[in-house]
User: Which sequence fits this backbone?
């Protein structure tokens, strides 16, 4: 009764092989004690009760400390069954295809992606050759499903071919694997790792990955160069620094547009409103005091993107209401996280004075439509401040939010977290990149694409078809530019529109266009005057002065695989 049988020992060894060495050692010690005090049957019963928890924790790898702490908290508050159910869900979410997503990093991720792309190409080719197009499509659909990619254009042979061509590239598998890092971040958020008292806005894990990625991106940009037909060359880093990817340029352009919009609103005698929209309590994991939010919807586990979707849906309803009732508005919205990563919106908008009350009522109505009766909803969920020119400008209201979301310049301390402005901006940028959230978006107004294209011209080459609009853009006068383009409500009737090239086939067999300039009716001003080739810095130059180009090379370059992607033959698609 007391000493375990040989069969019992084998059974125990099999169970303990699925836990860490440390856990196995502790379990064996406890089993020995129970064998002597209560017998091996009672010891086995105890082992069954604790083994699954440790097996699950062993499978979450580097996330164990945070996950184990949260599981213990849930067990204490809601019982062991609830904690185990949550643990099972965490393991399931962190599993990506055939690996734990946290184990796919750096060189390991590259090797994994290479193997996946190679295997996909071989298997897809075999299915097409041996079983036909229908089986090949079915194999593609299964592969897309396990990779978490949605694809619905199965009736379009060109799009199917393009998707297949992408899937035989390791980069495709790497890109989609990295998207799964959002799941890791959301699990850490559920574990209370994202909060003011810990790591505000974004977890330390994601922040570290963001910093490494920034360094990697910079190294890449500095090691490649673009060379044009006149043999002029610039590193990609130099070109990047000249555009709006440069935080300084980005902030300056945003503030120029905001000031110009405000000046135009003043001329039109429109009211200015500063509105904050916040998600319901069930989207917030941690309170500002660091305690867990009991209203957090743990059953559905709303993610950061779920919170953003709620805000987008609410704004869509508001816009539809305003359009139906002839209440046009224009302005900008910025998205930033609460300390626990849940998004909220700050909106600076302008409207006719006669419409102000109706606009505020629309925001109040739709902003409180979901869980509007919960405690504090009417005070916190929709905040409206009328912009009083006597107290400050509209651009002044929004300037700190612009800076806080870009580089933190001119902000000494972030009031929500106590971090410096620079550190807060870095964390917010890491947050937006991790969750794929667009930080700024104008509504109403005119095309910034036209503005940017016109500013590519030098004064000597000012386009004749739109000289006045060009000079407004060139001197940075967004107000004049907007008026000349047709005003804030011009919509599709604006004076100039972006002009695109004729469709050309890309490496995936898709017909794509690229921007070439601006157009006014049938007249076109071409802004893209150079043809660029991207190459490694210092790459070999051929005798005829052509550079050796950098191109994306498709793995499928010959033999049966080449036939597979021949759209004229329709091998896979018909």
Assistant:
């Amino acid at each position: 009764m007391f000493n375990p049988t040989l069969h019992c020992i084998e059974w125990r060894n099999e169970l303990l092989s699925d836990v860490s060495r440390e856990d196995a050692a502790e379990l064996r010690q406890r089993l020995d004690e129970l064998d002597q005090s209560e017998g091996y049957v009672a010891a086995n019963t105890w082992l069954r009760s604790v083994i699954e928890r440790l097996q699950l924790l062993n499978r979450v790898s580097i996330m164990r400390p945070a996950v184990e702490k949260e599981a213990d908290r849930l067990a204490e508050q809601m019982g062991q069954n609830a904690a185990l159910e949550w643990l099972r869900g965490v393991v399931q979410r962190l599993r990506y295809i055939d690996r734990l997503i946290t184990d796919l990093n750096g060189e390991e991720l590259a090797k994994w992606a290479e193997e996946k792309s190679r295997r996909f190409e071989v298997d897809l080719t075999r299915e097409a050759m041996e079983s036909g197009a229908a089986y090949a499509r079915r194999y593609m659909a299964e592969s897309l499903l396990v990779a978490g990619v949605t694809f619905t254009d199965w009736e379009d042979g060109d799009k199917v071919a393009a998707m297949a061509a992408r899937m035989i590239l390791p980069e495709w598998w790497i890109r989609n694997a990295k998207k799964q890092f959002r799941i890791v971040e959301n699990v850490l958020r559920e574990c209370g790792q994202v909060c003011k008292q810990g790591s505000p806005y974004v977890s330390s894990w994601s922040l570290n990955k963001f910093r490494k990625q920034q360094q990697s991106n910079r190294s890449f940009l500095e090691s490649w160069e673009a060379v044009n037909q006149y043999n002029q060359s610039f590193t990609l880093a130099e070109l990047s620094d000249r555009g709006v990817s440069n935080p300084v340029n980005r902030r300056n352009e945003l503030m120029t547009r905001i000031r110009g919009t405000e000046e135009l609103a003043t001329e039109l005698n429109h009211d200015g409103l500063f509105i904050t929209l916040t998600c319901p309590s069930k989207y917030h994991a941690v309170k500002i005091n660091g305690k867990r939010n009991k209203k957090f919807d743990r059953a559905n586990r709303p993610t950061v993107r779920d919170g953003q979707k709620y805000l987008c849906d609410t704004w869509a309803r508001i816009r539809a209401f305003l359009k139906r009732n002839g209440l046009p508005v224009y302005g900008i919205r910025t998205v930033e996280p609460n300390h626990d990563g849940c998004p909220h919106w700050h909106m600076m908008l302008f409207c006719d004075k006669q419409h102000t009350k109706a606009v505020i009522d629309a925001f109040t109505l739709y902003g409180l439509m979901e869980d509007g009766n919960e405690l504090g909803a009417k005070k916190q969920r929709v905040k409206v401040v009328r912009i009083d020119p006597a107290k400050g400008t509209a651009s002044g209201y929004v300037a700190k939010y612009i800076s806080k979301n870009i580089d933190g310049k001119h902000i000494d301390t972030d009031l929500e977290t106590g971090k410096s402005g620079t550190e807060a901006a870095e964390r917010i940028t890491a947050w937006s990149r991790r969750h794929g959230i667009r930080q700024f978006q104008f509504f109403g107004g005119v095309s910034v694409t036209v503005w940017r294209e016109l500013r590519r011209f030098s004064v000597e080459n000012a386009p004749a078809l739109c000289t006045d609009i060009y000079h407004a853009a060139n001197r940075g006068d967004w107000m004049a530019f907007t008026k000349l383009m047709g005003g804030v409500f011009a919509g599709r009737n604006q004076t100039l529109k972006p002009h695109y090239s004729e469709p050309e086939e890309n490496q995936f067999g898709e017909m794509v266009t690229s921007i070439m300039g601006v157009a006014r009716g049938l007249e076109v001003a071409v802004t893209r005057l150079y043809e660029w080739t991207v190459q490694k810095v210092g790459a070999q130059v051929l005798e005829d002065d052509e550079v050796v180009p950098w191109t994306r090379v498709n793995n499928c370059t010959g033999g049966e695989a080449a036939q597979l992607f021949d759209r004229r033959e329709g091998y896979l698609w018909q």
In short: Residues 542-574 have pLDDT under 50 and may be disordered. The first strand starts at residue 95 and ends at 96. The radius of gyration is 29 Å.
